[in-house]
């Protein structure tokens, strides 16, 4: 099972942010150093690229300068985010603010801590982070059922063995044979044939990439807005899980939601697992991706 973890620096930042919230949340700044990216700074201070760009009026998150001073923790009275943190219940998302708890957020949206934890795959309900984007299931019965918000869990009964990894996937889904592309790379609800790779879009895509982990991290968010980013481990290896809303400037259409895992394999290689879609099954597929990643074994 994947356990979302914070490194020592990120944990220290979370504690600092919590203390600042209880003491009036005084402004905290950081001076950009050589080699920094907004992504790395967001990770260091346990916030998001989107929030840093908003607070510091940065039009292009991929362009910051050495010596530039950034606000990494706004003061409590600066009005950043309008003090609201996100959308209302109908918007289905909420951005965690200083001083928030999962219980308080659940009460605000007429739901329960258990429902929020399940919808957002939160292992420790006492640990949420400033800037974290939470999915808010529809209000109503308070148990996440009866409104189509929490689909029945699909059993992962099938196993696919590739050269570098083994993964389990849902019963009834199809996967590629390896005749055209690496086996166990594409998974879909419907049967499919493998044409030229650029012509095929499947529900879940897994791949071993000959690209360094840090290089992939530096490119995350290009062509879209990062909604959430969480450090984690996959099969005991360092990893990150990122959810993005695409702007249409890259390969994917505007409004496409993407969830991607990047895993450090070492020796200049990384593993990626992703799903992207604009259709109503996105959230269910994202949850299936999360569970498939939990079953990964590398060799």
Kindly describe this structure.
By secondary structure, this protein is of the alpha+beta class. It has seven helices and 14 strands. The chain has helices spanning 8-22, 38-44, 49-55, 102-108, 113-119, 213-219, 282-294; strands at residues 28-31, 69-73, 93-95, 133-135, 158-161, 165-169, 174-175, 186-188, 204-209, 224-234, 237-246, 257-266, 269-277, 297-298. The strands form four sheets. The protein has a seven-stranded antiparallel β-sheet, with helices on both faces. Helix 4 (102-108) packs across helix 5. The radius of gyration is 20 Å and the shape is globular. It starts with 7 loop residues before the first helix and ends with a strand. Residues 1-24, 76-91 and 139-151 have low confidence and may be disordered.
Offer a quick outline of the entry:
By secondary structure, the protein is an alpha+beta fold. The protein is built from seven helices and 14 strands.
- Which percent band covers the strand fraction? 25-35%
Strand order of the largest sheet: 7-8-9-13-12-11-10
Q: Helix fraction? A: 10-25%
Which of globular, elongated, flat, extended, rod-shaped describes the shape? globular
Provide the gyration radius in Å. 20 Å
């Amino acid at each position: 099972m994947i356990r979302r973890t914070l490194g020592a620096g990120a944990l220290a930042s979370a504690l600092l942010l919590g203390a600042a919230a209880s003491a009036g949340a005084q402004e905290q700044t950081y001076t950009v150093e050589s080699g920094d990216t907004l992504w790395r700074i967001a990770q260091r201070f346990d916030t998001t690229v989107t929030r840093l760009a908003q607070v510091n009026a940065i039009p292009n998150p991929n362009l910051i300068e050495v010596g530039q001073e950034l606000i990494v923790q706004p003061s409590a009275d600066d009005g950043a985010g309008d003090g609201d943190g996100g959308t209302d219940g109908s918007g289905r998302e909420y951005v965690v603010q200083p001083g928030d708890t999962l219980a308080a957020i659940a009460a605000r949206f007429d739901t329960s801590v258990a429902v929020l934890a399940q919808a957002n795959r939160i292992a420790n309900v006492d640990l949420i982070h400033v800037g974290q984007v939470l999915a808010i299931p529809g209000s109503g019965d308070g148990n996440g059922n009866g409104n189509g918000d929490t689909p029945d869990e699909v059993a992962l009964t099938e196993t696919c063995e590739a050269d570098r990894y083994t993964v389990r996937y849902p019963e009834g889904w199809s996967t590629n044979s390896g005749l055209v592309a690496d086996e166990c790379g594409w998974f879909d609800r419907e049967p499919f044939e493998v044409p030229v790779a650029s012509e095929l879009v499947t529900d879940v895509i897994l791949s071993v990439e000959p690209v360094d982990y840090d290089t992939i991290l530096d490119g995350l968010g290009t062509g879209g807005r990062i909604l959430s980013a969480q450090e984690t481990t996959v099969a005991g290896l360092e990893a990150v899980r990122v959810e993005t809303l695409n702007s249409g400037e890259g390969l994917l259409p505007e409004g496409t939601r993407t969830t991607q895992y990047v895993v450090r394999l070492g020796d200049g290689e990384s593993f990626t697992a992703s799903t992207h879609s604009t259709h109503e099954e996105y959230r269910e597929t994202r949850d299936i991706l999360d569970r498939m990643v939990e079953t990964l074994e590398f060799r």
